[in-house]
Design a protein that fits this description.
Blueprint: E1 3-14, E2 20-30, H1 33-62
Antiparallel strand pairs: 1-2
């Protein structure tokens, strides 16, 4: 594949009855420096879409509305 490495870490921390904090960290590098430069600009958008899809699916499964951090 095009990646030198792609590491994704999901952490779920319980926060009371039926709630948790979800953290997602993505670290990546492409094999090609030119591809790295181009994709670094758009990869953040892809990760954001992945997080939004995760939240939408969680709402379908669990019916909870997302909370924002203060």
């Amino acid at each position: 594949g095009p990646f030198q490495h792609l590491d994704t870490l999901w952490v779920f921390t319980p926060k009371g009855e039926g709630a948790c904090v979800v953290e997602c960290t993505v670290d990546f590098a492409f094999k090609s420096r030119s591809l790295q430069a181009v994709m670094a600009m758009v990869f953040g958008s892809a990760v954001s879409k992945m997080a939004s899809a995760f939240e939408a699916r969680a709402r379908v499964l669990f019916g909870a509305k997302p909370r924002t951090l203060a």
